[in-house]
Amino acid sequence: MSGQRILIDPVFGNANPLDFPLIAPRFQEAPIQLQNLPKLDAVLLTHDHYDHLEADTIRYLADKVDRFITPLGVGARLQSWGVPVEKINELGWGDSSMLGEIKLTAETAQHYTSRWTTDRNKTLWASFVLEANGQRIFWSGDTSYGKHLAEIGQKYGGFDLAFVEIDAANAGWPKTHMFSEQAVQAAQDLNAKRMLPIHWGVFSLGRNPWYQSIDTSVKTAAEKGVILDVPKMGEKYQPEHFQNNQWWQAPELRR
User: Fold this and answer.
1) Which of 115, 138, 191, 243 would staple 162 via disulfide (CB 3.0–4.6 Å)?
2) Does pTM surpass 0.90?
3) What Gene Ontology cellular component terms go with this record (predicted)?
4) Binned average pLDDT, 10 residues per bin, the chain of 255 residues
5) Interacting residues of 8 by C-beta distance below 8 A, sequence separation 6+
């Protein structure tokens, strides 16, 4: 965006503290190897859960990236992994920071944080708004559905594109994630011109088939008239030229 390359919530390994393959296993390989990443202008982190923040990735990037933008409290973790304090930019809800021409603002979300059993909610979680040259992008991070989404939409006057999480919801966790139908409603609440689903198709975080959330999201978006773009992992995405090809419906991917 505006000439800046931002990597958001990078995880190149598994998403659990013990690196045990049966806990939140990864079933989609990253489309690029960590050592092959291009020059990055910033790393943006939404919170400290293992499927969003990986120690080995941060250690590798610590001396290669000049800016690490995080919610409050996450900076201490980054420092312990080798990121110099002067590279860390912590934001509370409503706080903003400039990256070139981009204004990044941490916004509200309904979630929680922890890396272990003794540190629950010791750090903040956030969604993010990116604004530059008259364009606005929303990144949901992890959040459940709530009135905060419509409030954000009203505050910013809508978005050109909303990246919204669609997976890992569970009736027993009502304040942590959105069901697919809620995610589409969130895009409407945000007054987004287009929606791109995130937080699905990489880790096994629930009991349902990995493709259930995208099937439901596509169906719901069609019913509600929401433009939903679903690029394949690693595919270059240009909203004005994008065409869905239903790649996730391939039989070999649904075994």
Assistant:
1) 138
2) yes
3) cytoplasm
4) 96 70 70 95 95 93 98 97 98 98 98 85 96 98 96 99 87 79 98 96 76 94 98 92 92 82
5) 43, 44, 45, 46, 139
